[in-house]
Automatic annotation (TrEMBL):
GO terms for molecular function: small GTPase binding. Keywords: Cytoplasm, Protein transport, Repeat, Transport. PANTHER family: IMPORTIN BETA. Its main location: cytoplasm. This is Importin N-terminal domain-containing protein. It comes from the Eukaryota. One of its GO terms (cellular component) is cytoplasm. It comes from Coccomyxa viridis. Residues 25-105 form the Importin N-terminal domain.
């Protein structure tokens, strides 16, 4: 039976400045946890509830308790939930009661921590019908006449946190009556008559978390009007925390109930305009965020309408408020902080205003130009007073902000006239102006890279200024590298030469120098990353006449990669920095290998160094004994394409790393990259992969079955089944049955995912369906007709049935999925006997093929034409 142990002294020691005392306390807590888990949790809850205990100790007890019922990792969280559910009912009841009683604590931090703990426990128990009286108990706290402010504040926090937790759960946990009661209590705490501002803020934050549950209430105009009224009243409360939280509510309402806003927008504009220009900065930023959210909603609606599938009414809020909204944002731009260009962590009114202006431009397009250009022209060269640099920087930022939205032709007319001025401004005395100028020049090349702007006459000045400015302060050089990257990316790479070719060597040389600059670690890391990214863009855009120069980069990158392994590593930070630099260099190598492998004439430049490349990449892998270096893995994938079947000579040394990467599901991006490289290897060495497939398939099947593996990896694993089958042919027979079983399970999961109906489920389902179809196609094309008949003929009707389900899911159709389905239909017809009658029974087959033949994508139309022919042959053969 669980008993309460006094853990006060242990928790005090756990906070000691004495490292030995802390370590001993941590050991004692760990031993207590392992020896008597129920008593351990009960003792923590008891310590949290002790009114006479030290506040910091109470908080620590509550935080440790929270960490025993919740964790960031889904796998760890599942373990903790299982342990909680296994606790004796009496212990759980005691803990719940202790947490509820702590809400009344006069020590605010204890009540706050108890509210967090209650929400975490509620997230476990409410979905399964446990703790049924929790919500009512909290509501009773709010209604009790004797309830003190501390109790009301902590109770509101608990309600808000519970709503936040339940909002992350797909199932409907709260009944509408409970939602109504929660909103009533919260609204009561938000009223302007509430004298305690901490209670009012807690109520407003609780509403913020409850908004997603209020759909029914927002459909009711009377209830909606009342909620909007108290929120708007909160935006002018005398406490800044209440005003900020109220604007946060408006932001969330804009994201969730855009269509309900027309009746309130005039008042909201007045409130946001006043707050943005006159309120404290944190409040003002939330007022700006409201308009950012409205812009994002309207961008999405426009995109959906362009695609012909929008059901949401476009209210054109941004267009209706355009001139005063733009005027407001322009007034914010000169409110910069000194040095904001050097700190990526700063987010102030100037930056928020520029971000919102960019979104406005994306919504209204060309209309923004007439409102912005006079401001730019009036301020970009303003220099009468020492502080006028603010207006020059603001005007430059305004130009850069609006480049994504208006038409290229309209922008080119302005930019072609102003580019020379901007290039001269790179010699401006104030560093923040130079920083913004470099960024704006980069944005010009990203969005207005036209012959009117970048041509034979302008390129010498452009390149000359960028080569000079790349030697500026590191944070400015970083933006110059960005400009160089965008300049390079705008040139086509499929020509024998380009205007960029004469400058390729000098630009890449300057970027290599920039990547070796000295300075503060953070500045140098950002500059280095941007410089190498610019090299990558330069290589991708290289024309045929510069490929010999690209080839010269291979030994240079190998030398640089080798030097990273000669540097002594004496700390964790140095190891991380080594890994980052190796990642950047491996990334450049990957791009170079891909570029040179595109043409047979340049592929030899890779193969002559293949042994050295592989040696270097395996050495990088060996530097990281417990993990696999993702970028090194991807570079090896690129090398497989250049080497083809010759890559097999590296398999004995490479395979242990391939295995390690496939097993490394805890770093899921690494695992996903490794699965992709597995496909590359299969395509390159084909049946020479056979000796390794049993081990590979064991790992892949385990990953599919494991709940611990990140689900985004799994569709790619299904595709890998197809790659392996294509590579080894009938030898795939040894693993075909478990593979088909997995594919059938995946089909069932896809049907379930479709019923979930949210956007995240749609995106994952598209990946899943694509993986399923690719797997079947690979098996069908890899194995002989006799084996296809033996193993796939019984499954063919179910496959066709699933294809029909996917085709009829019109709301969630994806072009890549449809293309893979069309190909699979043809593969079934050409590789499995006697399917003619089944095709005849599925009219959708002809409907999808007719639609695909009209596709603007030639590859889709071609696949449909081929599939139509083989299916017709299959049907005619059955008659």
């Amino acid at each position: 039976m669980a008993s309460v142990v006094d853990v006060s002294a242990i928790l005090q020691n756990a906070q000691s400045a004495d490292a030995h005392a802390r370590q001993q306390a941590e050991i004692q807590l760990q031993q207590f946890q392992q020896q008597d888990y129920p008593s351990y949790l009960l003792s923590l809850a008891t310590e949290l509830s002790k009114e006479q205990a030290d506040a910091a100790t109470r908080q620590m007890a509550g935080v440790i308790l929270k960490n025993n019922v919740d964790a960031p990792s889904e796998a760890r969280k599942a373990e903790l939930v299982a342990r909680w559910n296994d606790l004796p009912q009496a212990v759980k009841a005691q803990i719940r009661q202790l947490l509820l009683s702590t809400l009344a604590s006069e020590a605010q931090i204890a009540g706050h921590t108890a509210a967090l703990d209650i929400a975490k426990v509620a997230a476990i128990e409410l979905p399964t019908g446990q703790w049924p009286d929790l919500i009512q108990s909290l509501l009773d706290n709010m209604e009790a006449e004797t309830a003190k402010s501390a109790l009301r504040q902590s109770t509101l926090e608990a309600l808000g946190y519970i709503c936040e937790e339940l909002g992350n759960i797909e199932q409907d946990v709260l009944e509408q009556a409970q939602v109504n009661n929660i909103l009533t209590s919260v609204a009561k705490g938000m009223r302007k008559e509430e004298p305690d501002m901490s209670v009012r803020r807690a109520a407003t934050v609780a509403l913020f978390n409850a908004i997603i549950f209020a759909q029914t209430n927002f459909e009711n105009q009377t209830e909606r009007n009342y909620l909007m009224q108290i929120i708007c009243e909160g935006t002018v409360a005398h406490d800044a925390r209440v005003r900020e939280a109220s604007f946060e509510c408006l932001v969330k309402i804009a994201a969730n109930y855009y269509e309900k806003l027309p009746g309130y927008m005039q008042q909201i504009f007045t409130l946001t305009h006043h707050a943005a220009l006159q309120d404290e900065e944190d409040v003002a930023k939330q007022a700006i965020e409201f308009w950012c959210t409205v812009c994002e909603e309207e961008i999405d609606i426009q995109q959906e309408q362009d695609e012909g599938d929008s059901t949401t009414v476009h209210h054109h809020f941004v267009q209706q408020a355009l001139q005063p909204l733009v005027d407001m944002l322009l007034k914010l731009l000169p409110k910069q902080e000194e040095g904001q260009d050097e700190d990526d962590g700063i987010w102030n009114l100037s930056l928020a205003g520029g971000n919102c202006l960019s979104l406005v431009a994306a919504v209204v397009g060309d209309e923004v130009l007439a409102l912005i250009m006079p401001y730019i022209q009036a301020n970009i060269s303003k220099n009468a007073e020492p502080e006028d640099w603010r207006y020059r920087e603001a005007a430059t930022t305004a130009l850069g902000a609006i480049l994504e939205g208006p038409s290229t032709d309209r922008l080119a007319a302005y930019v072609s006239q102003g580019l020379s001025f901007l290039l001269h401004a790179m010699k401006e005395p104030h560093q923040q102006v130079r920083h913004s100028t470099a960024w704006t020049i980069g944005r010009i090349f990203e969005f207005v890279h036209t012959p009117a702007v970048v041509n034979q006459e302008t390129l010498p000045q452009i390149v000359g200024v960028l080569l000079g400015s790349i030697r500026d302060m590191p944070h400015i050089a970083e933006k110059v590298c960005y400009a160089m990257a965008q300049l390079a990316a705008g040139f086509k790479d499929d020509d024998s030469t380009s205007l960029f070719s004469p400058y390729f060597k000098e630009i890449v040389g300057a970027l290599l120098d920039a990547a070796q600059r000295q300075g503060s670690e953070q500045e140098v890391a950002r500059l280095q990353a941007q410089a190498f990214e610019a090299i990558n863009d330069s290589v991708r855009s290289a024309s045929t006449d510069t490929l010999p120069l690209v080839a010269q980069l291979v030994p240079l990158m190998l030398t640089k990669l080798g030097s990273t392994m000669q540097t002594p590593i004496t700390s964790v930070d140095e190891h991380e920095r080594q890994s980052e630099l190796q990642g950047l260099l491996c990334g450049v190598l990957q791009v170079i290998i891909q570029k040179l492998s595109d043409q047979d004439s340049s592929k030899a430049a890779v193969t002559q160094y293949a042994d050295s490349i592989m040696e270097a990449l395996l050495s990088v892998m060996a530097c990281h004994s417990s993990t696999i270096h993702e970028e090194a893995m991807l570079a090896i994938g690129a090398l497989t394409y250049a080497c083809g079947a010759q890559f097999s000579k590296y398999m004995e040394r490479f395979f242990p790393y391939l295995q390690l990467g496939l097993k490394n599901y805890k770093e899921w991006q690494v695992c996903q990259a490794t699965v992709g490289v597995l496909g590359d290897v299969c395509r390159a060495i084909e049946d020479q992969i056979a000796p390794y497939t049993e081990t590979i398939m064991t790992i892949l099947l385990h990953n599919l079955e494991s709940a611990d593996v990140q689900r985004n990896i799994k569709p790619q694993i299904l595709s890998a089944f197809g790659d392996i089958a294509l590579a080894i042919g009938d030898r795939f027979e040894a693993c075909v049955n478990p593979c088909l079983h997995m594919l059938q399970s995946a089909q069932q999961l896809s049907v379930m995912q479709q019923q979930a109906g949210n956007e995240e489920a749609f995106e994952y389902n598209s990946l899943l369906r694509h993986g399923i179809f690719e797997a079947y196609s690979g098996i069908l094309n890899g194995m002989s007709s006799a084996k296809c008949d033996q193993y796939l003929q019984p499954s063919a009707p179910a496959i066709l049935e699933f294809g029909q389900f996917v085709y009829q899911d019109k709301d969630n159709q994806d072009d890549a999925v449809m293309k893979s389905l069309v190909s699979l239909l043809g593969d079934l017809a050409s590789n499995v006997s006697n399917l003619g009658p089944f095709f005849q029974q599925k009219p959708y087959v002809y409907q999808i093929l007719e639609e695909a033949q009209r596709s603007p994508d030639p590859s889709v139309a071609e696949a449909a034409g081929w599939a139509y022919g083989v299916i017709a042959k299959s049907v005619n053969g059955a008659q």
